[in-house]
Specification:
498 residues, alpha/beta, five-stranded parallel beta sheet, 19 helices, 8 strands
Amino acid sequence: MSRYNKEIIIGIIPVALIFLLFIQVNVVPLLFAGVIVFAILYYIRTRSNGAMTNNRRNKAKSPAFLSFDDIGGQERAKKELREGLEFLIKRDLTDHFGIRPMKGILLTGPPGTGKTLLAKAAAQFTGSVFLASSGSEFVEMYVGVGASRVRDLFKEARQQATKEEKESAIIFIDEIDAIGGKRDGGQQKEYDQTLNQLLTEMDGIDSEETPRILLIAATNRKEMLDPALLRPGRFDRQIEVDLPDKKGRLHILRIHAKNKPLDEHVDLEKLADETFSFSGAQLEAVMNEGAIYAMREDLKLISQSHLSLAIDKVMMGERTDRESTKEERERVAVHELGHALVAEVVRPGSVSQVSLSPRGQALGYVRHNPQKEQYLYTKSFLEHQIMIALGGSAAEELIYGDRSTGSRNDFEQAISIVSTMMDAGLTRLGIIDRRMVTTEQLMSENGYILEELTQRTRELLRSKQHVFACSLDIMQREEVLSGSRFRTILQEVQQSTA
């Protein structure tokens, strides 16, 4: 509202009240209603201004220097992102080829893979003003507030870029699914208006406009986004930021090791092997927790053992002080040895450590040696995975004659793998569409596979039963049995029974 209009309204209101009093109209209800309306409008305006203030705080006029070289494990994503950013800094070349500048780049992938870091590096790469926000900041119960905040964010980006004499600005919205979810025609008018305003702002980013605005957004739930947001002309490029492979994990570990005093015998390549399927955030946590373990022991250097303990903590949580009875500890040892024995038979050399140390909700665990970077799995590989999962319960049945509740997670894992086999056409049902198969058929096949593999697991453990007697005593006394020592026991038992 302009200053001129405000002055007109301020002049009219007292004149109208005097006129109503003159004709003997009770103005008290009107005054009361006016106060309520004023309070509501003032509250909405204050919240909107507060959002603008937060945006100003969040913007990085010159963010802490972060280049693409400082981000490990995402070479493909960095290459795609750099290519998209070229349109901001090479206008002559894009005009020559008639390329329309990108309006939006969507970063998708699991949590902790570096999507926010990529957005910050993009700002440095282009020399742009950088404004960061979260999708939840635009969600309000009052209709129109979220849309207003979207307008303010884009306006702030243009103003700040002009003020700093920069040709471009990058707006980063994290967790964009909070405002960009699919519209279902329901009563969530506030969400719809906020999304509509975002779509309008992206459409309104003129390719000839200076400064240019590029919207970078991140989400780990791409399937929830509205199709109108994903179409070309809005998010022109959708970049998958996936979990790093071994080479990427090694790069990330080296980055986070720069400011840490590592022992000369620390092997980061071995650590990269042992952290299969870890995200960048988890790898950073491993290095950080390793440093904490060294500090607890009042040491000056971080050793390989500290980092090994850190991997266990990141995977399963801190070691607990949970006390258990001798009988329970023995059953847990039998259970974990069952997993380890099956794993070592079906995949020789795969066991790294068997432990009775309780961590998180686990009373014990088996750590396996690093897996190879593998993206395709055969039927035999998946069957072996199921047998390893069933090894704990089968060992309890063999030694005690019954099972315990400690097998619940193992069964969930086994059922999940069976489901994968069905979807891949690796069962007796062949290639199926789940919508065309009855629940009874699926349950029957699931039961058949699990029963057959359970029987194979029992037979395997029965043939190696003497290993339990030799290993249980060591497990209960020392709590930890290394993979090499376990393999030595297995070989000695095989030789003695041959």
